[in-house]
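sry for the spam today, last one i promise. struct tokens for design, 389 residues
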């Protein structure tokens, strides 16, 4: 037994974690109350190694937000705009394809596409977007849309959620994103995202998608007005759906960004809280294979530390992220492959480039571009060239 855990208040959980016994809700709540961050790290790293060994992953991807016009006004959101605000945007299909073409030139394998609930865009817009992107490159993996976007499409099209998902899949959707889960507890959800879909409605979209054979990620927004018990409740509901469907590929805990929104908090997430939340997520979500340290919200340095606290993925190169940065994130707009590889190696792990489904890229159904390894550095060169005209 590791000396850090042998003398820890958490030593009695060592055998449970080592044997793979499921952590109970009361044990998870106890872990949230522990001040022994080192002990938590030992347990979580042990659980992560049982899942993935001594490797950690990253992906070459690009974010595209097609619009920030939205009919909702979630209290924590700094991204959404109304038409009357005068500073919103909406992209045409041609503009989205141009961004994708630029990204493909630098080896990106995934587009992560989400947006606001636009008041007038027709359902065909979303289908045409997917078809146009697949026509550009059939091997490009499209990870698109949150559950609330899917429900919005159902409302504007008059179709069922299942019919919308089937149409999106036929048009080229590869994976749903996990965004919009926030915190499932109704009191908290009403306080931070009044008018958004309920927890049950979010879970039902993913349940239907999984039953169709689709995969998705899942998230939790932490560090605002929720309690630790609310976090455990949220994780429990995700674990229960995963027991039922097995459709979640990874979990992404998201730290609340307190700037530039209508939901001020007195104690935003600290480094301690972030590391313990990632560690407990790894221990509790025993049926989800991967936990991502989202460097956009954490910063790359803290995300690197999180690799010793149960995380096994640093997410991606991203480029042009809006939602977290409009909320006050000060992390870079993109990350280089070299920086992520260095962070993983310094943490004592083996870096592995992955696809949308967390598979090593050489296992992908499509040929890996020969130029993929140098993509982010080439992207930096392009950005400098554009800046200098």
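last one done:
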């Amino acid at each position: 037994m590791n000396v850090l855990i042998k003398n820890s208040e958490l030593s009695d959980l060592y055998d449970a974690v080592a044997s793979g016994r499921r952590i109970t809700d009361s044990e998870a709540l106890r872990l949230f109350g522990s001040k022994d961050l080192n002990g938590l790290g030992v347990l979580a790293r042990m659980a992560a190694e049982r899942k993935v060994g001594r490797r950690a992953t990253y992906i070459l991807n690009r974010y595209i937000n097609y619009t920030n016009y939205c009919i909702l006004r979630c209290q924590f959101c700094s991204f959404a705009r109304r038409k009357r605000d005068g500073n919103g945007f909406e992209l045409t299909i041609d503009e989205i394809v141009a961004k994708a073409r630029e990204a493909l030139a630098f080896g990106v394998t995934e587009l992560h596409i989400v947006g606001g609930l636009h008041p007038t865009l027709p359902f065909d817009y979303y289908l045409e977007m997917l078809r146009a992107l697949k026509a550009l490159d059939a091997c490009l993996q499209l990870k698109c849309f949150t559950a609330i976007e899917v429900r919005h499409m159902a409302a504007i099209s008059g179709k069922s959620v299942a019919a919308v998902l089937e149409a999106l899949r036929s048009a080229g959707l590869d994976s749903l994103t996990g965004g919009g889960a926030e915190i499932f507890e109704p009191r908290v959800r009403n306080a931070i995202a009044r008018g958004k879909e309920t927890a049950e409605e979010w879970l039902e979209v993913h349940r239907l998608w999984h039953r169709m054979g689709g995969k998705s990620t899942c998230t939790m927004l932490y560090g605002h007005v929720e309690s630790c018990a609310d976090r455990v409740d949220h994780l429990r509901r995700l674990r229960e759906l995963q027991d039922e469907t097995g459709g979640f590929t990874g979990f992404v805990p998201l730290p609340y960004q307190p700037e530039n929104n209508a939901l001020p908090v007195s104690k935003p997430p600290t480094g301690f809280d972030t590391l313990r939340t990632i560690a407990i997520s790894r221990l509790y979500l025993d049926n989800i294979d991967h936990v991502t340290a989202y460097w956009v919200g954490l910063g790359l340095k803290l995300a690197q530390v999180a690799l010793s606290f149960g995380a096994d993925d640093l997410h991606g190169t991203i480029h042009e992220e809006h939602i977290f940065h409009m909320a006050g994130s000060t992390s870079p707009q993109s990350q280089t492959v070299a920086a992520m590889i260095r962070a993983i190696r310094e943490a004592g792990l083996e870096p592995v480039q992955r696809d949308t489904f967390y598979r090593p890229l050489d296992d992908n159904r499509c040929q890996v571009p020969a130029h993929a390894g140098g993509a982010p550095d080439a992207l930096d060169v392009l950005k400098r060239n554009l800046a200098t005209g």
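The chain has one domain: 23-387. ok im logging off now
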